[in-house]
Amino acid sequence: MARVPGLLAGLGNSNLCRTSCCLGEVALDWTAGACIRVLLEVQAFGVSPLRWEGNVQNIVKWRQLEHRGPYFTPAYEPLPDSVHFFYDGKPVKLSLAAEEVATLYGKMLHLECTTKEVFRRNFFSDWRKEMTAEERELITRLDKCDFAEIHKHFVERAEARRSLPKEQKQKLKEEAEKLQQEFGYCILDGHREKIGNFKMEPPGLFRGRGEHPKMGVLKRRVRPEDVIINCGRDSKIPEPPAGHQWKEVRSDNTVTWLAAWMENIQNTFKYVMLNPSSKLKGEMDWHKYEVARRLRRVVDKIRAQYRADWESPETKKRQLAVALYFIDKLALRTGNEKEEGETADTVGCCSLRVEHVRLHEKADGQEHIVELVFLGKDSIRYNNRVTVEKLVFQNLQHFMEDKDPGDNLFDALSTASLNKHLQDSMEGLTAKVFRTYNASVTLQEQLRALTRGLPGYPVPEGNGGAWDGFGTSASAPIGYSPTPTRS
């Protein structure tokens, strides 16, 4: 590091933000300016400033782990007697469980999601499950419910908090810092490391993203009895809150989470993890970019192969080749198989259907236009028009022949077979590696263009012969267009 003049100058007192250079060399919480400065000096002097010893793929992730466990949100605080819920114009005193869920909805009255039928239907269904038998008999229609006073109460409370005197705000800040010091750090292999999300999520109504079919579903309160604790075998086991016990305590040093629980919306595990600035997370980020760096050495061969396979006599090979082109060119995810009706109808590359694809021989003065419209990850609508190569266009025409709108576009291809092909092409290769690689190349090219000629930062073309980065010779695919319009 001594070979790089001023490499770390000015980093100590900067305002921190999560900025990864996407080049596998910088994965610390530095300002964007500092990150660019390091990148430029790395390119100029041909050295790599950050390395970690060992292999992050080793099974053992840590040897010592001790922490206080997660912080649980306080119990529900009932509404004051002056705040009422009305049904059919009449005040109704709700049971504590029903009132808590009613306040979750009342807080959100100003949001557009509460006007959506799916949100309202899911909320009302889950709310009724929290009601007493008498409440369920009385409250049968959501459109007769009036949450206005509840909403007003929380608006006024938020305003009062914002208007607190400086001394009281300082006191609250000190209390939050005390909580951070108590629960927000762990001891990992003898080092004090910051924890990312040490506070358990409070109960709420699921909003999701896009038009998620489970919006409005009640996110239940997480109890200690739901939580699995992971800590060192010889460490002090965290104390659960008084009157409670953990679901399980284990010592698994092959994983990096500190606590885990099953959330009730998607029935998937959620985790308390280390902060992104921690050494272990930094190693994982470094490894992610190292895998992308390895792709640079074989990417031209992979691209040449899938281009050649566009003319294969085997339909399966041609479908695989076009799917790889989409993953490389459009940064599509592979798309995982799922149980029908369990989750939103989201799709990826392998699960594209005929109805998601429109072909235009000519449009806006261009040829071979493909229009893709579907629900992507998190139910966000993907809407992209892109020019493709002639052979890709012709193959898509063939794949869509004699098919109904609901039929699979790549009917001879599965996610498993695509992933196997990627692994056979390069160990550790996934669709995500393509996204990381192409985004890194794009970032490097933009940084080079924006900083060319700045005094004190000579930037050599390519990789300068010393630094194994993503040089200009390794460019993104022709027509690379990962960012669609979102609607």
Automatic annotation (TrEMBL):
A UniProt-annotated Pfam family: Topoisom_I
InterPro entries the record matches: DNA_brk_join_enz, DNA_topo_DNA_db_N_dom1, DNA_topo_DNA_db_N_dom2, TopoI, TopoI_cat_a-hlx-sub_euk, TopoI_cat_euk, TopoI_DNA-bd_euk, TopoI_DNA-bd_euk_N_sf
Annotated catalysed reactions: ATP-independent breakage of single-stranded DNA, followed by passage and rejoining
PROSITE patterns linked: TOPO_IB_2
Keyword presence, Isomerase: yes
GO molecular function: DNA binding; DNA topoisomerase type I (single strand cut, ATP-independent) activity
Isomerase listed as a keyword: yes
Origin: domain of life: Eukaryota
Record-listed E.C. numbers: 5.6.2.1
SMART domains attached to this UniProt entry: TOPEUc (SM00435)
Keywords: DNA-binding, Isomerase, Topoisomerase
EC class name: isomerase
Segments forming domain DNA topoisomerase I eukaryotic-type: 205-481
BP GO terms, sorted: DNA replication; DNA topological change
Any one GO CC term of the record: chromosome
Sequence similarity: Belongs to the type IB topoisomerase family.
Name the record gives this protein: DNA topoisomerase
Source organism of the structure: Mesocricetus auratus (Golden hamster)
